[in-house]
């Protein structure tokens, strides 16, 4: 592909004039420095990372002191960066590198990706920036540049799309100046091919960029598709007697386990039969109230409340349900939609 050669050359030329060269981890890019900066940058902006990185390096200048440190100490130096699993993995990896690799980061992709918290892209960064080996990386910046340059549709988190991106990233690698090239990719994505305002007129890839020439760059990369979740329906029987309402306690297992709610069934007839049989309600003059919707992580529940105001015929067994004054109900453990329904009822 002729584009690949041009792509790398254009990028390197741009990097020589506009690339970032003063970031603290670029000053002495040992594998340790590259690794630490990559982990810090995974969820955090460069501007925030710089101070944390400098403090961390001052306290843990290399793998060995980090490996020997107490986890609490490592977490204290991470405090404020968030995503603390990164710090715990950092500590574990330092201990493995210290014990199994005599304090030097391994030089193969296979060994690196076996270390806690190191994925293929971070391993690629260590191998290229730290050891000058020829490997691709695919962090968020590179994904954005490549999906735009090749107008690759689909969400990059999708396995097929991601595989395609890795192939493209690999095919574009130059034979020389690999560290500069990788840094250039990161820099272009971070400073020019930005998420919402790419500066295409100043971009060295503009003439071959498919998104720029045929579509709208900000259409790429595509967003994660929203999951469509199923909808379920249920009926509540809201039995009102003066200023009291009837509630039953839900079984301890299942949704809203142990909370107080209106008698509920999936089918209206089933619910009425249940309430007549169990609570001796005389169910007539049913008024259908407006529907409610409650969204769980895995489904959406449409609730159809049925209001009856007739008195119960017989004595209710208090172990299965009870009458409560509306104000007292608010003191009970209630599912969120019951609580909001009561507010509207009031
Ligand atoms: S031309 Fe625009 S969209 Fe294409 S790579 Fe450059 S900045 Fe990104």
Automatic annotation (TrEMBL):
Top-level taxon: Bacteria
Keywords: 4Fe-4S, DNA damage, DNA repair, Glycosidase, Hydrolase, Iron, Iron-sulfur, Metal-binding
Listed transmembrane segments: none
Reactions listed under catalytic activity: Hydrolyzes free adenine bases from 7,8-dihydro-8-oxoguanine:adenine mismatched double-stranded DNA, leaving an apurinic site
Pfam families with a match to the protein in the record: HHH, HhH-GPD, NUDIX_4
Enzyme superclass (EC): hydrolase
Cofactor(s) listed in the protein's UniProt record: [4Fe-4S] cluster
Domain annotation HhH-GPD: ranges: 40-191
SUPFAM superfamilies linked to this entry: DNA-glycosylase, Nudix
Cofactor binding: number and manner: Binds 1 [4Fe-4S] cluster.
EC number: 3.2.2.31
Cited PANTHER family: ADENINE DNA GLYCOSYLASE
Sequence similarity: Belongs to the Nth/MutY family.
Function of the molecule: Adenine glycosylase active on G-A mispairs. MutY also corrects error-prone DNA synthesis past GO lesions which are due to the oxidatively damaged form of guanine: 7,8-dihydro-8-oxoguanine (8-oxo-dGTP).
Alphabetical list of NCBIfam families matching this protein: mutY, PRK10880.1
Official protein name in the record: Adenine DNA glycosylase
Source organism (scientific name): Methylophaga thalassica
Gene giving rise to this polypeptide: mutY
